[in-house]
Backbone:
C-alpha cells in the first residue's frame, strides 16, 4: 500500500495539498519523522522531488529528459487527435506547444517552490536546486524571440 500511496503523491492534483502540509509542519518545526503520518508525508514529498528530478539535473541531461517528456506528451496529444477529442489536453498538442516556455513555467511554478520547501529539511537538495535555477534561465533564454536575445 505504501508504494501505491507514493505513486499517487506524484499526481499534480494533490501537489498543493501535500506541499502545503509539508511546508507548514516544516516551518513550525513540527515535522517529526517518528510519527507515521509525518514519515509518510516526507516520503510523498521526496517522491514528488524524484518525479521532477530531471529539472534539477545538469543542463544537457535536463534538456534531454525534457525532450523525452515532450515526446510522451505529444504522443498523448496525437492519440487524442486520432480519437477526435473535442479538446487536446494542455501541453499535449505538438502543433501549438512551446517546449521552452512549458519547461520554464514548470520549473518556475512547480519545481523551484517544491525544492525550496524541502531544502529546509533535506539540505542535499542544494545542488539540484541550483541546477534547476540555471535550467530555468536556459529555458527562458530559448523562449525569448530572437530580437530580444541580441540577434538582428
Residues:
Amino acid at each position: 500500500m505504501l508504494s501505491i500511496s507514493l505513486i499517487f503523491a506524484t499526481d499534480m492534483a494533490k501537489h498543493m495539498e501535500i506541499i502545503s502540509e509539508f511546508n507548514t509542519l516544516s516551518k513550525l518545526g513540527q515535522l517529526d519523522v517518528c510519527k507515521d503520518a509525518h514519515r509518510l508525508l516526507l516520503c510523498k514529498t521526496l517522491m514528488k522531488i524524484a518525479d521532477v528530478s530531471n529539472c534539477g539535473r545538469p543542463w544537457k541531461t535536463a534538456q534531454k529528459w525534457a525532450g523525452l517528456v515532450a515526446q510522451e506528451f505529444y504522443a498523448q496529444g496525437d492519440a487524442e487527435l486520432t480519437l477526435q477529442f473535442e479538446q487536446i489536453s494542455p501541453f499535449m498538442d505538438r502543433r501549438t506547444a512551446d517546449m521552452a516556455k512549458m519547461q520554464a513555467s514548470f520549473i518556475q511554478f512547480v519545481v523551484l517552490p517544491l525544492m525550496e520547501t524541502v531544502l529546509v529539511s533535506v539540505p542535499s537538495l542544494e545542488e539540484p536546486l541550483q541546477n534547476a535555477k540555471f535550467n530555468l534561465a536556459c529555458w527562458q533564454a530559448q523562449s525569448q524571440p530572437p530580437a530580444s536575445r541580441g540577434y538582428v
About this structure: The first helix runs from residue 2 to 8.
